[in-house]
Every structure is written in structure tokens, then in C-alpha cells.
Amino acid sequence: MAYPAKGEFARRRMQLMRLIGADGIAILPAASVRHRNNDVEYNYRQDSDFHYLTGFNEPDAVAVLIPGREAAEFILFVRERNREREIWDGKRAGPAGAVEDYGADDAFPITDIDEILPGLLERRSRVFYTMGLIQEFDQRVVGWVNTLRAQAGRGTHPPQEFVALDHVLHDMRLFKSRGELDLMRRSGAIAAGAHVRAMQFCQPGRMEFEVMAELLHEFNRHGADISYHPIVGGGANSCVLHYRDNNAPLNDGDLLLVDAGCEYGYYASDITRTYPVNGRFSSAQRAIYEIVLDAQRAAIAKVKPGNHWNEPHDAAVRAITQGLKRTGLLKGSLPALIRDGAYKAFFMHRTGHWLGMDVHDVGDYKVGDEWRVFEPGMVLTVEPGIYIPAGTRAAPKRFWNVGVRIEDDVVVTRSGCEVLSAGAPKEPDQIEALMAAA
């Protein structure tokens, strides 16, 4: 598994400490171990913010950043080495490994945090911390500060202010470095290969979960895991936006919508492709598919520096409304249909979201009351869709149960944009040729 170089984590910490300032201190707890049922744990996945700053991927850890402190600016509290536990659960870094392998200036056993951390808080006026993620740890942080405040009459200098760390840190995470983009390209390439594999496997009589198994096989054989539970919806299920059951048979004449991405080196991809189960689009399916594809092309063309966040969505809305009007599914003037939101009966979601370490990644979509302007290094999805479930009164029966979404991962570049998921075919003729050759 590839991760950013140790120096990149150090650069991120230095950038954050400059933003915090010499009177601040930042505290980040690691993600907790979560249980699936009884004593069975979910596969551990580190908190994205914690990994972003440390690269340290063990639970029961706390990172502390103290700008300008001569003794140590970056401190890790971690589990001690334990031969018996390591036989069962695997090797631990321990305090020595936290310094040697992860670049901490100093490290201590996590069991010593109550004795040491209050002293680190003293003489810092602002505590940068994200409340609400781990309630028990919230109480400990507030308790350390209150203990210092209770001792203020004896000469201590407790912090006077809590500041939301996520507000500062998440704006950093919005802009991807070269190293991060390399990981996202790899994640996109692996996921694109999985979609190709799924297209080649698909045929009438197979089950949705069999297609999902092909996706997972391709992810895992390249050292990646799912970035979210895949959506594999055939026929009527293609019109369910967050379909998760993936347990229905694939029928001749239906479409299959597959929304699946992987996580590689802590960075996500998020790709959707829609294709005919039998390998050939019907005329009605192709008509809807080409409207969505035109909308996606129009939206991607708006992803470039200087444009704002909502421009791709506006372009997609216009293209979809035009297409639905052309097919007779919407009637009226184009401006009025857009103004009244008539398209929302068929296209009811936004056209994209930020993408990075999280599938729905961090970062504000507006600055104040204005849409955020695109800048190089931002990564987003572009995913228009049209969904026509059976019984839709405005649609002839030939369009019923036609659900189409086309989604790609796009990074803003200096001159425009780059599609990170281009390896997954989306032209209808390409899809048909690929499926026919399988």
C-alpha cells in the first residue's frame, strides 16, 4: 500500500501550525475501534484528519501540535509495545516507533496522557479541537482545561478559547498535493478497471451480488478496498439512488447502474456507469443515456479555474432539461422549466461533491454567501442522472425503470481539468463493443 512520503506529513503539520499560531495548541484523537456485533470488530480505519497529519494508523492514540515549543512541537501519545497483545493483534509502533517511524518529536504511552497533557495546555490561549467526534474524549479535553482554570489563582495560565480545528484543517485538505493526486489517479484507475470487469461479466440471469463480487475482486487484487458499499442496481433498482441490497437477478432488457469506488492509500474514487444487462441499449434507454452523457460533458467543461462550484450543476440542469423536453418528457419553455425546477421529477440530486480521503470529502461549497471558486488541486465528482421509475405518469412505458447515472472523478488543473476515472468507458458504442467482446 502506498502512502505519502514522511516529509509530506511533516509539511502538513508545519502548515497547520503556522495557521494555528504561536499561542495555540491542536489536539487530535485517533479513530476508535468499532464493533460490528458482540466481540467482532470492523476492519480498523483511521480518522482521516488524524492520518492526514500523522500517517499513524493505530487506535488509542492522540496527536498534539504545539507551535514554537522548543522541547517538541509534535507529540504522539500511543499504545506501548506489548508482546502478548501483539501476538493476537499485530505489531505496535510504541513510543519509540512513533518517533523513529512517524516523525514525532516526542512520544509517550497513552496511559500517561492525563498527567502530561494539562501541562502542554498551560500558557496556550487557544485550543484547536474538533468537538463531537468522540464524546468521551470531548469531556476529557474540557476536563483538562477546567482543571487548569480552577488552578488559575495559583499562577497557572489556562487556555481562554476553543477553536474548531476542522474549519482550519479541512480547508487545507481541499487542495490536493502532487502526492495525493498520484494516489487518487491510482484509486481511479483501479476502480475504472473494476467497472470494465463488471461490464464484461454482466449478462442476463446473473445476480447483482455477483457483479459486486467482480468489483471487490478487482479492488482487492490491487491492494485497495471499497470506499463505500457499492450500488449494483438492475431494472427498477437503478432508480433507487442509494440502493444497497444488491440481491436481485439481472433481467434481459434491463439497465444495470453500478456506483462503485475504491480506497487506495486512504484516497477514494467514486465512479458510476450504467449499461444494458444484455449488452445492447434499447432505443429508449439510449435516448435517456445520451441526455445524461451530454449533461455530464457540459458539466465537466465548466470545471476550470475561475468558475464557481455551481456552474457544472447549472450546465447539467440545462442539458437534462433540454433533453427531457426533446423526448417529450417535459413540456413548456426551457427557461420556465429550469426556473420552476420541472427537471427535479427526473434529476433530483446535485451534480457532484468534493472527493479525497473521504468519498464526500471535506471543504466548504460556499465562502460566505458566494459559491466557492474552483482552484487547481480541488477534486470533485461530476454525476448527473435521470431516473424514471415504473408508474411515472409523464413517461411512456418504454421509459419505465430506466435509471441512468454517469459519474467521474475530476481534478481542477491550471488550464482546465483532468478526469481521473477516464479508464471506465462511457460512450454507448464503446460499452456495447466491450460487452460484445467479453
Compact overview of the structure:
This protein is 37% helix and 18% strand. It is of the alpha+beta class.
Task: Walk me through the structure.
Helix content is 37%, strand content 18%. The protein contains 13 helices and 21 strands. The protein has helices spanning 6-20, 48-54, 83-89, 94-102, 113-121, 135-150, 165-173, 178-201, 208-221, 283-301, 311-327, 334-339, 428-437, and strands at residues 24-29, 35-37, 40-41, 62-65, 74-78, 106-109, 126-129, 161-164, 225-226, 231-234, 255-260, 262-264, 267-268, 271-276, 366-367, 370-371, 379-382, 385-388, 402-405, 408-412, 417-419. The strands form 7 sheets. It has a 6-stranded mixed beta sheet with strand order 6-5-4-1-7-8, sandwiched between helices. Strands 9-12-13 form a 3-stranded antiparallel beta sheet. The model has no long low-confidence stretch (mean pLDDT 96).
Describe this protein with a few key phrases.
37% helix, 18% strand, 13 helices, elongated, 438 residues, 6-stranded mixed beta sheet, alpha+beta, single chain, 3-stranded antiparallel beta sheet, 21 strands
Morphology: elongated
Strand order of the largest sheet: 6-5-4-1-7-8
Low-confidence stretches: none
Class inferred from helices and paired strands:
alpha+beta
The share of residues in extended strands comes to 15-25%
Radius of gyration: 25 Å
Q: What can be said about the biggest beta sheet? A: 6 strands, mixed
- How widely separated are the two ends? 31 Å
- Residue-averaged pLDDT: 96
Q: What share of residues is helical? A: 25-40%
Query: How many beta-strand segments?
Result: 21
**Secondary structure tally, helices:** 13
